[in-house]
Automatic annotation (TrEMBL):
Pfam families: Phosphorylase. This is glycogen phosphorylase. It catalyses: [(1->4)-alpha-D-glucosyl](n) + phosphate = [(1->4)-alpha-D-glucosyl](n-1) + alpha-D-glucose 1-phosphate. SUPFAM superfamilies: UDP-Glycosyltransferase/glycogen phosphorylase (SSF53756). PROSITE patterns: PHOSPHORYLASE. It comes from Pseudorhizobium flavum. The lineage of its organism: Bacteria, Pseudomonadati, Pseudomonadota, Alphaproteobacteria, Hyphomicrobiales.
């Protein structure tokens, strides 16, 4: 445990996230938020940053997806075994929940990067013999259960995580709240500033030093709509959190009617940012008067580049994984070498698809991929809006489609979308080879982003805060075809790095714009001008890979937020 001692001594920044995607076998993530946290941790390790990452152990995972004969998603618990990957630490702490002492134990996961640096990730666990049966389940189901369950999880993460760090001897200067779930970590900090009793303050908030807490907290918001924020009724908060902190203080900082985690984080963080330029603008409109910076997300280049493509990078720039900015020169890679490496990635994906679905897609036809969380604003069905039109396009210029994605077990709309996609796939039988890959996770995502030719995204603007899968695709030379929202507003150079889909938000016209682009621009290029296609692949890799990476993102967090 030498590495932990060193980490305790040197660590200055703590990153808190409800989910962190470390590896496919560890089910501590559900989707983009967790993948971003995982890529942040990997870059922190590569850059040897003095950081610790804190999350929940989520023993039962998020959901394992099965697709039944009627195309419906069947959601299973997705348990995993922390002891196979992490070490239980003896330092336990107690948090008060519903008046009971709930013990929290950290598991230590040593995240080691290619260069040999190691970063500690702490996975918080309440499944301990010391706890009441119901409390042992608090850290089981990621985003599972009811409001009370979620609040308990957020207490364990924020308050428990803070205590665990202290018990281990960490001295943290800055806390990074990755999304509002972690906002309760501000409360122990705030309590630490309480002026001695007896000092008379005319306003109760003046008993605390809010500005001292703000100096120590950095908040990244990921949600562009008010409805997406975690909110808890104060009656529930009082029942679960007890008298941990006065209700009027919470009402002052987190909302008069409900405890709104985004408001709490905003009011107690001295640096707040959105995850893309457009998202920061949207957030400023939601919260007039707050200063909202933007640090556009990035992906971890080594993790998301297919082995065959990585070998090309390696030949040209031996330091690419540490200095992804050198990928700016990836446009110098030879056409044949790149096309052949892409062919290897596509071959691997087609083999995976065949294994999962029994369907054999063709390597010589363009493959359009769409994989993301299945939820209404992402509009997974948009490409199937006009089946006649789609068939007509494919009859003249053939292509194939692969889809994947999980719906939250309680998201009826998302579940319905999956069923509808299955029906559309059936209806295309004989004209457009199309498949749904079950069990979207880190490994499936990696195969998809590398093996597709075109990466499709059709969200309803401005609801896609960032969207990182398109960055992963670009890194592998897959070309984005996407509505201009989130990061793509910054990444898209029309017909150079990919293509935009003009959107006015109405389904029929957005679908029409997608069909027009496919028919008139994307498919003719693939079928008719392979040289220009490969040129675009290189433009995507060099322009997007060199800047939309998590090394650049973490360097910016350090210089603009943590050291501020
Ligand atoms: C990258 C990734 C995401 C996020 O991608 P979006 O473009 O935001 O949908 C979600 N889930 C997995 C498994 C990923 O790898």
């Amino acid at each position: 445990m030498d590495f932990l001692d060193r980490a305790v001594q040197r660590t200055r920044f703590a990153y808190f996230s409800m989910e962190i995607a470390l590896r496919a076998e560890m089910h501590t993530y559900s989707g983009g938020l967790g993948v971003l946290a995982g890529d942040s941790a990997r870059s922190a390790a590569d850059l040897d940053l003095p950081m610790v990452f804190v999350t929940l152990v989520s023993r039962q995972g998020y959901a394992r997806q099965e697709i039944d004969n009627s195309h419906a998603q069947v959601s299973h618990a997705d348990p995993w075994s922390p002891q196979d990957f992490a070490t239980a630490l003896p330092q336990m702490v107690a948090v008060s929940i519903e008046g009971r002492a709930v013990w929290v134990r950290p598991w230590l996961y040593a995240l080691e990067c290619q260069l040999g640096h190691v970063i500690p990730v702490l996975l918080l666990d309440t499944d301990l013999a010391e706890n009441a049966v119901e409390d042992r389940r608090i850290t089981d189901a990621l985003y599972g259960g009811d409001q009370a369950y979620r609040l308990k999880q957020e207490i364990v993460l924020g308050v428990g995580g803070q205590s665990v760090l202290r018990a281990l001897g960490f001295r943290i200067e800055k806390y990074h709240l990755n999304e509002g779930h972690a906002a309760l970590l501000t409360l122990p900090l705030l309590k630490g500033t309480r002026r001695p009793d007896g000092v008379h303050a005319s306003d109760p908030i003046d008993s605390y030093d809010v500005s001292a807490v703000r100096k120590r907290c950095v908040f990244t918001t990921h949600t562009p709509v008010e409805a997406g924020f975690d909110k808890f009724d104060y009656d529930l908060v009082e029942r679960v959190l007890g008298d941990y902190i006065e209700r009027d203080i919470l009402a002052h900082l987190a909302g008069a009617d409900q405890l709104n985690m985004t408001h709490l984080a905003l009011n107690l963080s001295g640096y707040v940012n959105g995850v893309a330029r457009r998202h920061a603008e949207t957030t400023r409109k939601l919260f007039p008067g707050y200063t909202i910076a933007s640090i556009t997300n990035g992906v971890h280049v080594h993790r998301w580049t297919h082995g065959a493509i990585a070998r090309l990078f390696e030949q040209q720039f031996s330091n690419w994984a540490h200095e992804p900015e050198v990928l700016a020169f990836a446009d110098q890679i030879g056409d044949n070498a790149l096309w052949s490496a892409h062919g290897d990635a596509k071959h691997d994906l087609l083999a995976r698809i065949a294994q999962a679905t029994g369907r054999q897609l063709r390597p010589d036809l363009p493959l359009i991929g769409y994989a993301r969380r299945m939820t209404a604003y992402k509009r997974p069905e948009l490409i199937f809006s006009d089946m006649e039109r789609l068939r007509e396009i494919a009859n003249a210029q053939p292509f194939q489609i692969v889809l994947a994605g999980l719906a939250h077990p309680n998201d009826g709309g998302g579940q319905e979308a999956i069923r509808a996609l299955g029906a559309h796939i059936d209806a295309l039988e004989g004209t457009i080879p199309a498949v749904f890959m079950p069990g979207y996770n880190l490994d499936v995502a990696a195969a998809l982003v590398a093996g597709c030719d075109v990466w499709l995204n059709t969200p309803l603007p401005p609801l896609e805060a960032s969207g990182t899968s398109g960055m992963k695709a670009a890194l592998n030379g897959a070309l984005n075809l996407s509505v201009l929202d989130g990061w793509w507003i910054e990444g898209c150079v029309e017909s150079v790095t990919g293509w935009s889909i003009p959107s006015n938000g109405a389904e029929a016209s957005d679908a029409g714009a997608l069909y027009d682009k496919l028919r008139a621009v994307v498919l003719p290029l693939y079928h008719g001008d392979r040289g220009r296609w490969i040129w675009m692949m290189k433009q995507a890799i060099s322009k997007i890979g060199s800047s939309f990476n998590s090394h650049r993102m973490m360097r910016r967090y350090v210089t603009e937020a943590y050291l501020r």
